[in-house]
UniProtKB/TrEMBL annotation, chains A, B:
Pfam families cross-referenced by the UniProt entry: LacI, Peripla_BP_1
GO MF entries: DNA-binding transcription factor activity; transcription cis-regulatory region binding
Protein name: Transcriptional regulator, LacI family
Classification of source organism: Bacteria, Pseudomonadati, Bacteroidota, Flavobacteriia, Flavobacteriales
Keywords attached to this entry: DNA-binding, Transcription, Transcription regulation
Domain of life: Bacteria
SMART domains for this protein: HTH_LACI
Residue stretches making up the HTH lacI-type domain: 4-58
InterPro entries reported for this sequence: HTH_LacI (IPR000843), Lambda_DNA-bd_dom_sf (IPR010982), Peripla_BP/Lac1_sug-bd_dom (IPR001761), Peripla_BP_I (IPR028082)
Organism annotation: Flavobacterium aquidurense
Amino acid sequence: MNDTKLIDIASALGISVTTVSKALKGYTDISKSTRARVLEMAETMNYIPNSVAVNLRTNETKTIGVIIPATVHHFFSSVLNGILEEAEKRGYLVIILQSNEKYELEKKQLALLIQKRVDGVLMSLSNETDDFTHINEAIRKNTPVVLFDKIAKRVDCSKVVINDAKAAFDAVSYLINKGYKKIAHFRGSYVPQNSIDRFLGYKRALEAHGIEYDSKLVYVCDNNTDFEDGYENAQKIMTENPDIDAIFAITDLVAIGIIKYFNEAGIKTPEQVAVFGFSNWFMSTVISPKLTTIDQPGFEMGHQAVSLLIDEIVDIKEHRPVTHQIIELPTRIIERESTVK
Amino acid sequence: MNDTKLIDIASALGISVTTVSKALKGYTDISKSTRARVLEMAETMNYIPNSVAVNLRTNETKTIGVIIPATVHHFFSSVLNGILEEAEKRGYLVIILQSNEKYELEKKQLALLIQKRVDGVLMSLSNETDDFTHINEAIRKNTPVVLFDKIAKRVDCSKVVINDAKAAFDAVSYLINKGYKKIAHFRGSYVPQNSIDRFLGYKRALEAHGIEYDSKLVYVCDNNTDFEDGYENAQKIMTENPDIDAIFAITDLVAIGIIKYFNEAGIKTPEQVAVFGFSNWFMSTVISPKLTTIDQPGFEMGHQAVSLLIDEIVDIKEHRPVTHQIIELPTRIIERESTVK
DNA sequence: TTTAAAATCGAAAACGTTTTCGAAAACTCC
DNA sequence: GGAGTTTTCGAAAACGTTTTCGATTTTAAA
């Protein structure tokens, strides 16, 4: 306790706090000799500046807030690692909040972060949010926001995303080119943009290859926390549409649920029905057969998001005009066993 | 921008900032009527207190820091979720830092958190740290620290742990009771307490059941990020000690590496050699055969750690004597396919 | 009507910095 | 030795709150 403050150094040296402060910060109007004395005294007295006081005076906290919609697992885990690494590199701390896919909570948490005076916030939208005034309000108040992964096209800010529609299109085209003909889709819920986009990619790929889209082949998996959804819908589809030969799943998690059911039910993957996942999560290489999937660069996404955000923070601080960027990270198909006969 | 401040409300109402502040905080020496006027004006002017100023004045930040040694994956992911949930419930924000198993980084990050004036810090030690002066220093300066999972017995603070030695003892005893006789152990590196304790539990269980301990049957897996270690050591042990009939692995991750190798090499699990994991991570039920493991309550650990920490924070604030607790969370065996013939 | 008690308010100090601006001291140059 | 420069320093304001303590006003009691 009893941290040493500027005034302690000042009185120990018989000089003013002003001089001490300037000496420590390298102002040029302090003589070499007193600067040296201050530095030494600060060292021996183990001086550590009080960040809160500095924050108040300088009006910046060197802290960014992050709101993620889901529990820290799977994909967000990678993003978070990217965020933490880049933030550390740039000298910022990060406060994490999770909205549990609830709009009201997301709104409250954003307000909390602003109240805490974070310098900026990174967020991925909850499945529920279709009103963006809280975000626009934050931006209007000069707290920069950058959206990642689950974004809103209508919000004017920087974003880092993948092209979900294209990735899905590629995935389904791959399946078609491999000779699969009756391809089902296990989609996510109806609100999130990436769920919509992946569905559209699926649909367009079918149409582009002259396969008629059949709405009976799309099943909804809106539980993001375990693979039960994929498991149960796999069971369902095999009684309702036993003649499918491939499933394109919205996430690796549901894909794994599917494969688990198939394994238990004695349905051969990929011989009888192929399975294609999405995200390239860690366990997609653990399961057997190993899952073909789309590599979604979560770590890189976290990196870029932080980078954009901090760039914008300093632009604002230096009164430069801010320009919003939309970074689209490349995805690629990771071919493994679940689609290769 | 241009947040409204106390003085704005005050001058709008023709009263002093003191009165406004008191009215907002419910002081009893403000009349009902002016209090009502202040509240209403604060509402219409959309007043939000400046947390930084409050922090400076009250000398608390309502923020806790968390230092985890490894990337946010697997076990720490669960702990983090528990931390976030409990912290939110108690009105604290959480700043996350990861030390990447480096002592120097851990030390630096702890100093950073203290400089930032967090009210307390939660940490799980890096594999490298065998010097605890940085932690003792933090505690001495009145920043409470609670250790979880990877702790140091010699640091005097609250801790929340599992009994690694007992859990390992139980696991190995279970294997012995199942009739396995030549049981290997894939241990972690030499410094971390839980690695040591699990090894000791293994050794004691053997001895308690009259099986001679053979140091040639313990292999070191010190890479915590993927399952290559388990995979490679599995390969190695089957040439060096092909007659083993069970392996007790320090984590599910290495257990999965083992199973992957066995699956590829055509070694039957558990018929030829059984595999026992540790932690009950998500994918232990994904792999085939499903993994028998020890359930390590990560979420609960996060919960309890935050709870202990915040209790201590308020004890210190109210000048009550602080008492350090050590909470030992129960573990249990989850029997699945990898050990049941 | 006077006095004591209670209710209501505000001035000012404090939290620990940073930064502006002016003053004093030390040089330079003739 | 005096005018002009350059170095070096510090007083004070500011960031936005909270809280102490005294002052004033109102109410109650006598």
